[in-house]
Design a protein that fits this description.
There is one protein chain. This protein is an alpha+beta fold. It has a single domain, classed as Factor Xa Inhibitor. Helix content is 37%, strand content 12%. Strands 1-2-3 form a three-stranded antiparallel beta sheet. A hairpin with a 5-residue loop joins strand 1 and strand 2. The protein is elongated and about 55 Å long.
């Protein structure tokens, strides 16, 4: 059986938690922050999690993750 290649671009953007969930960091928090409200900036700081329907797609791209 041949090895399956990992998507390196995705591996740099997503981390696997101890329970097997996929965690990612949101975009849009590096500049132009003065026009964004406090609630929006705090929400951008918190990590997001991949939804259940998308987990199968991610699992194929990260076979050893």
């Amino acid at each position: 059986m041949p090895k399956v290649k990992t998507s390196r671009s995705l591996a740099k953007r997503i981390k696997v938690t101890a329970k097997g969930k996929y965690k990612y960091f949101k975009a849009g928090k590096s500049h132009l922050l003065s026009k964004k409200r406090r609630k929006r900036k705090l929400d951008l700081l918190r990590a997001g999690f991949i939804s259940k329907p998308d987990r199968e797609k991610i699992r194929k791209l990260l076979p050893y993750g």
